[in-house]
Target: Gfo/Idh/MocA family protein
Amino acid sequence: MSKQLNWGVIGAAGINGAVVPAIQASSTGRVVAIASRTQEKAQAAADKFGIPTAYGSYEQLLADKSIDAVYIPLPNHLHREWAIRAAEAGKHVLCEKPLALNAQEAQEMADACAKAGVQLAEAFMYRHQPRWERIKNVIASGEIGELRVLRGAFTFNGAANKGNVRFNADWGGGSLFDVGCYPVSAARFLLGSEPVAASAHALFSPEHDGVDMMLSGILEFPGDVALTFDCGMWADFRNFFEIVGTNGRIEIPGTFLPNGEEADFVVYSGGQRRVDKEPAANQYSLQADRFARSVWGEATPLVPPTDAVRNMRALDALMRSAREKARVTL
Model:
């Protein structure tokens, strides 16, 4: 058997339904333990996913010397504490997005992991789908001309579930952190640069603890290129991204959650339409494999701490703009 990375999961969040089976199906990893705030909840999750060990506290899991790395799917306000505690326990850390509540917290997490000599990566699973590198190559080839605007959306309607942790302001709730972070991350990756200004408008809902249930934003990038996007938790489901150039454009169907794991993209250029086919792949499994290889020194993380901190700076600026109703320079 090839070498394996032993994973522990800190928290019994719903996203585990996608991530845990994917780690187990990866070529490099196995989930050996899961922890929750109670033994009963941890055991139920362990039984559901076939995980050998269940811990009734996060501290117990971190004390398990057989665990190499932890996956943290906790509510946003707990990311910093448990990533730092995991690093201090010698565990590598894959943490759900957004990495923290703000850029300062993200930097503190990055510093703690660097000091401990462990890997830290933000769990933007979409980046591990190979089509993104191919899309970037199409842009670099000049086929669609000079870039003019990037446009994206990620919305769903979960407003009826008033007890959802996403609707807790103190816990880092809101649509920008939950789904808006995706188009922001994608734009930064595709352009290879950082935004210079941010403008945003948001619906802060009193029914949902005042979090942003909808947000529309503009990020200005060098070269007069912009990202325009909207995100929301109180709108019909949408999940798309478009890259518009002077001579063509690229559409990315099922951008962040590919339907049936298909990952085609469409190029319009010179009056022609071309579908670039990409084989189906589980982007969560690819994420686990890339992380393991980074732990072993065979690769670098696709979303390293430096990228996560910069993404948080953009999110910070967008939220400040929405609250102050003003353009914010970075």
Summary: The first strand starts at residue 5 and ends at 10. The mean pLDDT is 96. The chain has two domains: 5-125+286-299, 128-281+311-329. The longest helix spans residues 305-324.
